[in-house]
């Protein structure tokens, strides 16, 4: 209901909200794997996650047949996987990448943020602060030095713990060891916040290619 209200407030005229039975009349036995983009970072730590993403997104595309589909860049890896999916299913849909929308203090907007306590919400912006600080740092330091700085800066905040921070080719998602390894270099991070803990993701662009 909250999603419906948000969509209406943004001017939506129609909402497609099918039942599970409509989307999956029978169990979906299809298996999607697009290495290397689907097997690193989240793919390595959450086996089957991107297969589930591809199952539901492909079903959506088959049913709706959209001209364009919009995905937020906060989950950089998911966009890379969906682009591979579109090629695989030979779809004409255009994937539109939407820049991260941030709170005033820099925290990337996410439904997960509502799960944070006040104390956790207060420290969460340190994730983006560390990423942002590292951009200037990267101009005069190596990839490894930049990587280590981000991890150390985030882990220095009580209540935050880096699960992984990878500096990668923005397209293939393969780790790079120097800034000139490819045209676009991106840093992707996942951080545990709080005692529960809540898993927060973010990224920063070090070198542009798109």
What does this molecule look like?
The chain is of the alpha+beta class and 210 residues long. It contains 8 helices and 5 strands. The protein has a 3-stranded antiparallel beta sheet with strand order 3-4-5, with helices on one face. It has a two-stranded parallel sheet with strand order 1-2. A hairpin with a 4-residue loop joins strand 4 (185-193) and strand 5. Helix 4 crosses helix 5 (76-88) and helix 7 (126-138) packs antiparallel against helix 8. 25% of the residues are buried.
List strands and helices in order, with pairings.
Blueprint: H1 2-9, H2 20-23, H3 42-45, H4 49-64, E1 68-72, H5 76-88, E2 94-98, H6 118-123, H7 126-138, H8 143-155, E3 160-169, E4 185-193, E5 198-207
Parallel strand pairs: 1-2
Antiparallel strand pairs: 3-4, 4-5
Helix pairs in contact: 4-5, 7-8
Brief summary of the model shown:
The protein is an alpha+beta fold and 210 residues long. It is built from eight helices and five strands; from the N terminus they run H-H-H-H-E-H-E-H-H-H-E-E-E.
User: What is the first-to-last residue Cα distance?
Assistant: 36 Å
Helix and strand sequence: HHHHEHEHHHEEE
**Average pLDDT across residues?**
95
Identify the overall geometry: globular
Features of this protein?
210 residues; alpha+beta; three-stranded antiparallel beta sheet; two-stranded parallel ribbon
